[in-house]
Amino acid sequence: QVQLVESGGGLVQAGGSLRLSCAASGRTFSRYVMGWFRQAPGKEREFVAAISGSGGSTYYADSVKGRFTISRDNAKNTVYLQMNSLKPEDTAIYYCAATSRTFLSRTYYEYDYWGQGTQVTVSS
Predict the structure, then answer these.
(1) Rounded CA separation 2/77 (Å)
(2) Exposed, middle or buried by CB within 10 Å (0-12, 13-18, 19+), for 74?
(3) Region for 26 from its dihedrals, namely left if φ exceeds 0, alpha if ψ lies in -120 to 50, beta otherwise
(4) Which parts of the chain sit beneath pLDDT 70?
(5) How many CB atoms lie within 10 A of CB 12?
(6) For residue 59, which of 47, 50, 69 has the smallest C-alpha distance?
(7) Which tens digits make up the pLDDT trace of 98-120?
(8) Which residues touch 122 (CB under 8 Å, ≥6 apart)?
(9) What's the pLDDT score for residue 28?
(10) Which candidate, 25, 54, 50, 46, places its Cα nearest to that of 35?
């Protein structure tokens, strides 16, 4: 019921910033909790951040607290991930995901829909 498309990835120097966007299809975007995950080569998929349907509640992995900010614009059916103070260990493919659950989740299998991913590379 939901199609997701990420954009905004690229190459950035350590300490720099990037803003990722995730565009969703459909009329019921505001009903979904949205999340960002990332996966580096040879590593498991890792939770990054999640946001409630209204945008009023957020949840972050400890590794990105204070550096990343998740937000959403329901009028545009879009969720964002603002990434500041980037580190080489942030290098990964970043995926946008949606779940019909009403609470914030950090578990990948609780998300129902996924985007194709966008590459983020941070050089030292």
Answers:
(1) 11
(2) middle
(3) left
(4) none
(5) 17
(6) 50
(7) 999 888 999 999 999 999 999 99
(8) 11, 12, 13, 14, 16, 86, 87, 88, 89, 90, 91
(9) 86
(10) 50
Please give the Cα distance from 81 to 48 (Å, whole number): 10
Q: Report the candidate in 118, 106, 119 with the shortest Cα–Cα distance to residue 35.
A: 106
Q: How far apart are CA 116 and CA 4, in angstroms?
A: 8
Tokens for 30, please give them. Answer: 């505001």
Exposed/middle/buried for residue 56 (C-beta within 10 Å: 0-12, 13-18, 19+): exposed
Q: State whether residue 114 is helix, strand or coil.
A: strand
Judge whether 32 and 53 are in contact, CB under 8 Å.
yes
